[in-house]
Amino acid sequence: MKSFTILVTLVIIFGLGIAAYAYYALGKELNEKLESKKFIVPTEYYAAPPTFFTHSLIKVADVEKQLLRQNYRRRDYDQRLLPGDYFIADREQCAARLQVGLRENQESCIGWVTLETQTRDVDSSIQVLVVQNDGLISQIFKGAPFVEVPEANSEAPLLAQYIGIEPLMQKTVTLGEVPPTCSNAIMSIEDAQFLEHSGVSLKGIFRAVLKNISAGRKAQGGSTITQQLVKNYFLTSERTLKRKAQEFVMSILLESRFSKDQILETYLNVIYMGQNGAFQVRGYGSAARFYFSKELVDLNLSECALLAAIVNSPGRFNPFKNPENAERRRHAVLEKMLGLQFISQEDFNEADKNPLPSATRTLASETAPYYLDAVRKQLEAQGISADGLKIYTALDLEAQEVAQESLRNHLDNLEKNNKYIKGLKEKKNSLEGSILVGNNTTGLVSVVVGGRNYRMTQFNRAIDGHRQIGSVMKPFVYLTALLNNTPEGQPYTPITLLNDEKFTYKYEGQAWSPDNYGKAYFGSVPMFYALKNSLNAATASLGLQVGLGNIIDITHEAGVTSQLRSFPAMTLGAFEMYPREVLQSYMTLANMGKRQNLSFIRRAVDSDGKEIFVHQPAPTQAIDAAATASLVSMMKQTVLSGTARSITLNGFFNPAAGKTGTTSDNRDAWFAGFTPYLTTVVWVGYDNNTPHKLTGSNGAVPVWTQFMKKMGTRFPAEDFPWPENTKKVVLDQDTLQSLNAFKEGDPTSVELIFDAAKVPSGF
């Protein structure tokens, strides 16, 4: 008996020793994790601020909605504005505010001061859009005193936060910003004894065990809010007894070191609240924006109850995807609040019958991570760590979403209605694509769609896809010619005649014979006609005349960095390039030979507000402006009556130029096109290089057209700014026929740009 007593005593002492050690060890682990978490500053990414241009179309009501979503306050037109204020005025009121005379068709204006404006700068920072009765922004003013400006900006919205590589939507709030109804709702349904227990609730655990036994399944959990915080913030999600024991002890430790207010505030900021595309929605602040398009402080009882409902299982109780489950769970939350006398019967009845929120239009949630991937790679290339930075990107959220939808709709349509591609889809081949869009003036890239869906595949085709470019290369062959003379010593011009005939070129023991699409040849044709119809034989013949090395030099001058080998098929794009190189080089063409370095980032600042990076547009004249202008005028014919003529047939009428690209084996379809303002590059193909039998015309042009019909029309429908040393020449039908450059259905006149010193006699 005495031996047994000693053994029990030793076991108890040993057990207490282990418990004490575990308590000490877990306490140390808790402190270490608290300290490490405390110093993790998330990387914050901001989208580009919504920008408004003169001669673009808007609805004042839509601009107001945009401002209200960012918590702007409406004021009367004659009141002094503070940061975050806006006003809407009719014509007379607007004229009085601006102190200018307005025309009869200018019916209203909307003005604002951005939230980030310093109070001392308010008067000089007011931005006002003057809108005509047809919705056109006719003037933009900034002041006061007011002066006309070409554009106005609102706030740069926070797009995402990353902890390491984990994408989040998270807006940190203080407990003072949490409505009491939201605090009461979460405590009612998740932990009614939160204010009483010391981290764990034995009563709650016992009640949950009984309920689960009676239900024959897990019907109720016994975790307190403190335990849930420990599980979410400090531990992994593994389901083991060891982890549960750690959670139990660490919850008690947490309660001994922090107040209930601190624990609840932290919990409401870190709890998982659902998924917005690739981004986790973390915390009540971001959940209020995601589910209700509101700030947390503005939520009502019904909305607070719904957030508390979602906490239990964000997937099962998602009001957008599972409204019946969400409504049932919200009802349970309200019943708990009523039973605990947090709300009255009248409050309950009103909140219980409120409709659930409708799914808000999520802006580019499925493809925006491709853009952020491009941002990170740019920073890495410049030796800058993204950790803890505030990064102000050039991402245009609306344009990104339009690009995302344009690509997806076209690919879905092909997989549904194109017999060949439908068959490939049935064999588990998924057609993919990419889109890049850049601003010609600034070099800022506003859109990066690297695939159909980032969650399906993280490979960023827009940045890392190295694909054959096909006929996208041809403009650089023609540009090289326009910079040089013919073998006869005459300058090449848009109407210089080329031989579009079958030929064989022998080199290094090989023979090469380029074929035209459809095996059709047209004989003697002018350069602009050969380019707009993408004639291989004429282009290859021209390329061999002007010199492959010269073509490579010009292509590099335009911004291509991939290594190009000097072999004949290079003239037809039989080599690989990255889409971003296509964007860079075509943007140089759009800028009349001025090369502007691309950037996905406007600026980046560290946690102290110090500017780490800023994009400074610095265009350099890399290629002769007059020669480039001649090429651009030829590329305009591609859109008007060439291989991309479906653009105008489908309703995009703004001046534009471009080139389709189709590889000889039909594995890649391209269209790179530009207006005076934007350059947009589209690629379509399979990751495994399966031939798709598409051309640039039917594979990529439809995506470009749908995107530009919505986003390109935000800019004035103005022609390219032709250099001064150029001359505009109009070819009539008789001239076109004499040049063998007219066929039925073609325009009866063609407008081309010539270097003023190289215009042939008679023009």
Given the structure, what is the number of helices? 27
Rg, Å, rounded: 32 Å
Overall 3D form: globular
What's the assembly state of these chains?
single chain
Number of strands: 31
Strand order in the sheet with the most strands? 12-13-11-10-1-14-24-25
Key structural traits:
single chain; alpha+beta; 31 strands; globular
What is this entry, summarized?
This protein is 40% helix and 19% strand. By secondary structure, it is α+β, with helices and mostly antiparallel strands.
In terms of topology, how is this protein built?
Layout: H1 2-38, E1 43-46, E2 51-53, H2 60-69, E3 73-74, E4 85-90, H3 91-98, E5 106-112, H4 122-125, E6 126-132, E7 137-143, E8 147-148, E9 151-153, E10 158-163, E11 166-170, H5 180-190, H6 202-215, H7 225-233, H8 241-257, H9 260-270, E12 272-276, E13 279-282, H10 283-292, H11 301-312, H12 323-339, H13 345-353, H14 368-381, E14 390-393, H15 397-417, H16 419-426, E15 432-439, E16 445-449, H17 461-464, E17 467-468, H18 474-482, E18 497-500, E19 505-507, E20 510-512, E21 523-526, H19 527-532, H20 536-546, H21 548-558, E22 576-577, H22 579-590, E23 594-595, E24 601-605, E25 611-614, E26 620-621, H23 625-641, H24 646-649, E27 657-662, E28 668-674, E29 678-685, H25 696-699, H26 701-711, E30 726-731, H27 733-738, E31 750-755
Parallel strand pairs: 1-14, 3-4, 11-13
Antiparallel strand pairs: 1-10, 2-9, 4-5, 5-6, 6-7, 7-8, 10-11, 12-13, 14-24, 15-16, 15-29, 17-22, 18-21, 19-20, 23-26, 24-25, 27-28, 28-29, 30-31
Helix pairs in contact: 1-8, 5-11, 5-12, 7-8, 7-9, 11-12, 12-13, 15-16, 15-26, 18-20, 18-21, 18-23, 21-22
